[in-house]
């Protein structure tokens, strides 16, 4: 496969309305996303061209469109949709590890956040 490298977008914040409970849709809340993207070099390291790699500005926009788009009940489903969307947009990605954090999860106690991580392999 040759040389690979990893691009990471850390702690991307978005306001959305995901969750099982009606009040989560009504009130909405912030969600935080980390994307760890394994990329096949395919000449990018030699060409030094944005066209040969994953443009992280566009990757951020793809994540934003998915997170702020249709409502999902589970953050697991949201994470998978993000991973698939990134792999579809950028053919250079071989693996997308996506973590979604939900700080205001409706639980009967105090916590910092609920977090789900998934790994999706392109192909």
From TrEMBL:
Enzyme class: lyase
Pfam families: FolB
UniProt-listed SUPFAM superfamilies: Tetrahydrobiopterin biosynthesis enzymes-like
Catalyzed chemical reaction(s): 7,8-dihydroneopterin = 6-hydroxymethyl-7,8-dihydropterin + glycolaldehyde
Pathway(s) the chain acts in: Cofactor biosynthesis; tetrahydrofolate biosynthesis; 2-amino-4-hydroxy-6-hydroxymethyl-7,8-dihydropteridine diphosphate from 7,8-dihydroneopterin triphosphate: step 3/4
EC number: 4.1.2.25
UniProt keyword Coiled coil present: no
Cellular component terms (Gene Ontology): cytoplasm
One BP term from GO: folic acid biosynthetic process
Residue ranges occupied by any Dihydroneopterin aldolase/epimerase domain in the UniProt entry: 7-120
Keyword field: Folate biosynthesis, Lyase
Molecular function GO terms recorded: dihydroneopterin aldolase activity
Sequence similarity: Belongs to the DHNA family.
UniProt function note: Catalyzes the conversion of 7,8-dihydroneopterin to 6-hydroxymethyl-7,8-dihydropterin.
Protein name: 7,8-dihydroneopterin aldolase
Organism: Rhizobium sullae
Biological classification of the source: Bacteria, Pseudomonadati, Pseudomonadota, Alphaproteobacteria, Hyphomicrobiales
């Amino acid at each position: 496969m040759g040389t690979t490298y990893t691009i990471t977008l850390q702690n991307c914040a978005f306001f959305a309305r995901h969750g099982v409970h009606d009040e989560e849709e009504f009130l909405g809340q912030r969600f935080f996303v980390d994307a760890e993207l394994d990329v096949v070099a395919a000449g990018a390291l030699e060409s030094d061209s944005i066209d040969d790699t994953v443009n992280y500005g566009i990757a951020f926009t793809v994540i934003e469109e998915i997170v702020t788009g249709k409502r999902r009940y589970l953050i697991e489903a949201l994470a998978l949709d993000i991973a698939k969307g990134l792999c579809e947009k950028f053919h250079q990605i071989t693996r997308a590890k996506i973590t979604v954090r939900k700080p205001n999860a409706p639980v009967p106690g105090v916590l910092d956040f609920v977090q789900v991580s998934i790994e999706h392999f392109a192909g």
